[in-house]
Design a protein that fits this description.
Protein name: Nitrite reductase
Order of helices and strands: EEEEEEEEE
Pfam families: Rieske_2
InterPro entries: NirD, Rieske-like_NirD, Rieske_2Fe-2S, Rieske_2Fe-2S_sf
Radius of gyration: 13 Å
Oligomer: single chain
Strand order of the largest sheet: 1-9-8-4-3-2
Distance between the termini: 14 Å
Strand content: over 45%
Largest sheet: 6 strands, antiparallel
Keywords: 2Fe-2S, Iron, Iron-sulfur, Metal-binding, Nitrate assimilation, Oxidoreductase
Organism: Dermabacter hominis 1368
Shape: globular
Structural class: mainly beta
Length: about 120
């Protein structure tokens, strides 16, 4: 089952400057990375449980010759893969990732797709 919700217009998000959105009690961070792709992840830092990921640092990491978009926590600087949620510093943390899409210029998130749940 899908639960697609509109967040904002794509042109409202600046590249490399994440924004926060709130759906009930669910906090998400919306990121337009250097590759132009939109990513939606949990706004809650997996290590500290604070809603700060929308203030994180957008970057990239080369993995097997491929550059992957990343987001670093603004607190302890753990770096997370924006597509998979994998933490490159520790297997103890994973950043939840949501399915997202752009429809007619509007960013949408599937709130039922959070991985890991």
């Amino acid at each position: 089952m899908s639960n697609w919700q509109s967040i904002c217009k794509e042109n409202d998000i600046n590249q490399d400057l994440p924004e926060a959105a709130l759906f009930g009690t669910e906090q998400v961070a919306v990121v337009k990375a250097w590759d132009g792709k939109i990513y939606v992840v949990s706004n809650v830092d997996p290590r500290t449980q604070q809603g700060v990921m929308s203030r994180g640092i957008v970057g990239d990491r080369e993995v097997d010759g491929i550059h992957r978009a990343t987001l670093a926590s603004p607190i302890y600087k753990e770096v997370y893969d924006l597509e998979t949620g994998k933490c490159y510093a520790s297997d103890d943390y994973t950043l939840p990732v949501y399915a997202s899409r752009v429809t007619d210029g509007v960013i949408e998130v599937d709130l039922d797709s959070k991985t890991p749940a």
